[in-house]
């Protein structure tokens, strides 16, 4: 199939208008690659304890698997570089070293202040294995904002548990906490 006139020119855009990331040359539309959205994946291979009951604990991270435009400061502060909405997802592997049932709270902090309406509670039942707690939030953040994941329990035996490499079959380390944050 052939055409007598180009489908698009710089002055007559045809079906699309040239502009940011689009150019037209001799009727051929060319797309310039767009940079990745900011994103990060942080996790911890350290068991995190609850040293004082009913006190705020901040999740710590000691590894970064992906880190584009989002930084981890001091092992606790996840700092964004762009003003945007972000999807924050995290999981924590929780267990207790004693019996009984106890509440566990997780919430988000922005710049050291509680982020509204982000607290969630779970009941952890002692002696029954681990609970994998998982949450997902959409957060409106400004460039330079720092996010922290906080947790608390009235039980000093509550902890965020890391498991080492396991055998039969061989399995990788189980992090105590994982966090993925992606710019929307």
Q: What's the CATH first level of the largest domain? A: Mainly Beta
- The N- and C-terminal alpha carbons lie at a distance of 40 Å
What general outline do the C-alpha atoms trace? Answer: elongated
Beta fraction of the residues?
Answer: over 45%
Please, how many domains? 2
The name CATH uses for the topology of the largest domain is Jelly Rolls
CATH architecture of the largest domain, please? Sandwich
The number of distinct β-strands equals 16
Topology diagram in text:
Layout: E1 22-25, E2 28-31, E3 39-44, E4 48-49, E5 57-58, E6 63-68, E7 70-73, E8 77-80, E9 84-96, E10 101-110, E11 113-114, E12 120-125, E13 131-141, E14 146-153, E15 158-160, E16 177-183
Antiparallel strand pairs: 1-2, 3-6, 3-16, 4-15, 5-14, 7-8, 8-14, 9-13, 9-15, 9-16, 10-11, 10-12, 10-14
Structure commentary:
With 184 residues, this protein is mainly β. Helix content is 0%, strand content 50%. It has no helices and 16 strands. The strands form three sheets. Strands 3, 4, 6, 9, 13, 15 and 16 form a seven-stranded antiparallel sheet that branches. The model has no long low-confidence stretch (mean pLDDT 88).
């Amino acid at each position: 199939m052939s055409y007598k006139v180009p489908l698009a020119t710089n002055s007559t855009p045809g079906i699309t208008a040239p502009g940011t990331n689009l150019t037209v040359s001799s009727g051929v539309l060319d797309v310039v690659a767009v940079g990745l959205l900011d994103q990060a994946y942080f996790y911890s291979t350290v068991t995190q304890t609850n040293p004082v009951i009913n006190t705020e604990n901040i999740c710590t991270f000691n590894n970064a698997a992906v880190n584009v435009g989002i930084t981890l400061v001091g092992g606790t502060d996840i700092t964004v570089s762009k003003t945007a909405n972000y999807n924050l997802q995290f999981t924590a592997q929780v267990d207790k070293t004693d019996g009984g049932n106890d509440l566990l709270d997780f919430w988000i902090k922005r710049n050291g202040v509680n982020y509204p309406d982000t607290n969630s509670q779970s009941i952890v039942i002692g002696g029954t294995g681990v609970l994998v707690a998982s949450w997902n939030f959409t957060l409106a953040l400004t460039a330079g904002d720092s996010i922290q994941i906080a947790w608390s329990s009235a039980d000093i035996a509550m902890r965020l548990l890391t498991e080492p490499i396991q055998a039969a079959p061989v399995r990788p380390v189980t992090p105590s906490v994982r966090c993925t944050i992606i710019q929307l």
